Amino acid sequence: MAESKLSEYRRKRRADATNEPFGDEGSASTPTAFTRAAKGETLEGAFVVHLHDATRRHYDVRLEVSGVLASFAVPRGPSSNPDDRHLAVKTEDHPIEYLEFEDVIPRGQYGAGPMIAWDRGSVTYLEGPAEQEIENGKLHVELRGTKLRGRWALVKLQKKKSGATAGVHGEREGKGNEWLFFKKQDEHADRERVLIDELPRSVLSGLTIEELERKEDIGRALVARAARMGAPARKGDVPPAEAFPARTKAEPASLRGARWRYDPVLEGVRVVASREGGAVTLRTDDAPTQDVAAFYPDVVRALRALSVDAFTLLGDLVAFDGSGHPRAELLAERARRFASGDAARATTEIPVVLMAIDLLALGERDTRPLSLDRRRELLSALAPGAGFVRTSSPLRGDVRTVVAACAEHRIARIEAKRRDAAYPASPDDAFRLLETGVTARAPVIHHGGATTREVTVTNRGKIFWPAQGFTKGDLCDYYAAVAPVLLPHLRDRPVILVRYPDGIEGKNFFQWNVPPGLPSWVRTLEFKDDEGSRKRGFLVDDPATLATIANLGCIPLHVLACRVPRLEEANFFTIDFDVKQGSLKDAVVLVETLRELLDEVGLPGFPKTSGQTGLHVLVPLGQGQSFATARALADLLGRLLVDRWPRIATMERIVKRRGPKVYVDTGQTGPARAIVAPYSVRAVSGATVSTPLTWDEVTPRLDPRTFTIETVPPRVERLGDLMKGLVTATPDVERAVEKLARIVGTSTGSTG
Ligand code: MN
Predict the structure, then answer these.
(1) What CA–CA distance (Å, rounded) separates 37 from 668?
(2) Distance of CA 159 to the CA centre of its chain
(3) What is the distance in A from the centroid of ligand 1 to the CA of 90?
(4) pLDDT value at position 749?
(5) Rounded to the nearest whole angstrom, what is the distance from the C-alpha of residue 140 to the centroid of ligand 1?
(6) How far apart are CA 409 and CA 393, in angstroms?
(7) CA of 3 to the centre of ligand 1 (A)
(8) Tens digits of per-residue pLDDT, 251-265?
(9) How far does the centroid of ligand 1 lie from the alpha carbon of residue 60, in Å?
(10) Mind listing the pLDDT tens digit for each residue in 713-724?
(11) What is the percent of the chain where pLDDT is above 70?
(12) Dist. CA 50 → ligand 1 center (Å)
């Protein structure tokens, strides 16, 4: 329990005298959503590294474990050089609220002195639950912070040193609690960089630890500087709708000369951020009257920590992908998770940064009449850090060089501003917008509940299945009818679309990109195909998007077995019983045997018709499994089936050698392998549907051709989604692998 874990923390502090969080009894703010396993085993969570100037200056590395923060005091701080093994003294667990702490601990209190949030991010425990790892004295973690990235280790020292070292908090501590903290070799290891010198500032306030004690003075001095520059007194707030400057297109040739500054337009959400004391509002370009601050607690916290307590600034909210590029899809994903109540975890897994580019007001000063150069100077003093609020540096130099450099970085647009101009007050003196020739992508991020979107089906009467007379309208009606059971299987997965604009007998083609003219709210994402080349899949999360793609003439829907943002994890695997040469009767025997095997090892399985002639069994894996594990499981099961039924089953890849046997295909599991989704229509005569079945329906009397766009909707009405468990099951995969290995061992023993 968190309460007992925090007893030492509380014993050392006085609730009425310290400004630190005390870890409220039964506090509901504990983001237990990070604790993945039901058994209370922590596999991932949040982390913070504080720089703490107490009796001795040190860094406190704090990792979320069992709802509290396991804490290690590291006097020499983190080093990106794997050769540096720095002493880390394990101290008392801290309450989870400490993730947000940055302040000066009052004199006379335990740990008195300034403490800044030096880094913040998410942690994954790489070799098992953190609780066990700590017990064993070895913690291998992956850190995804602003500064600390990649794999790190904490290893407990076995040999006790003679006597305890003087503790960093002024007491004798450390004996038996000594660990080493070091970087593991990976692409983030660096023997040259000295992170703690290079990036000394807080990720919240942007201040150094020395500055934190003078925070108010620094803020006052900055406002005074704005006044000296000639910024007049503020007269009320800038109306939100007027805060966003107009942008007019311009040709690079018109912008020659040294008086221009250039800001690349990042993929993100343009916002005006205002703070008045503790109140922060964030307003977006497309809905200036709506405050979206609730969606960005990480950014709000950082804005509240800045040295000046009132300001208005212009910037872009961005989320970076693994290679450091801003990606609007990540923002959209985060907003969706917020809307579905998964805010704590979304904030940790998809951090957002505010890239500030202009300043409208500072303290009681209106900074808009100042020149751009002056506004940027004040802005970078207000937000000098590299954390959750950053000031981006405008590009300068020859406009052609700037355009070429941005094009090279796949940046579609650039804002150009005159160095000596005031903040644009009317469209006449707008920011100039340059295009680089790269195609702009502007996925829309929805803040708040779902909005109603109307999709009109075009050419409803067009015949798509000539033999049966089914039309495009019938296809669209079918997908609308099954949307409630189909969407949970599509949600967050890359969906691969094959379009049949003239029905099943016309030409067909893959639709990799959102075609021109489609609504901007249709979401897509990039992934790599089998050959490693980049493809763009659709994300189909709502009835409107489903209607949109049906209206494009997409008949079959194929999905990958993974979900954003973790495309490297397999959520299920598939065993395909292909009866092109064998018989369905034999396939039924094999599916029954597979069911027994799955029961034996404790894995659920879900049968469905392929929609053509064969059968599929889908096996859920929950979260955290690699595609290698998924494929190995599929292969092992396939081999067992062939071993038991050599006369009717084969895994032979060469078609001619299969004979009249059922081909047990386990090759449909892989990071880029797509499988036909449950309830997907097939582009074959009869408009058959890949239909989830009960195990009892898998008999020799089964006729897959009876499941069509006509018969499946009433069936769904009656039975609901028979495959619901594919999405919700969390089986014990490790245990299943062990059991399966034993079965394989026995079966090899008996035959060999
Ligand atoms: Mn400390």
Answers:
(1) 28
(2) 41
(3) 10
(4) 47
(5) 22
(6) 16
(7) 21
(8) 988 887 779 999 999
(9) 5
(10) 999 988 989 998
(11) 91
(12) 7
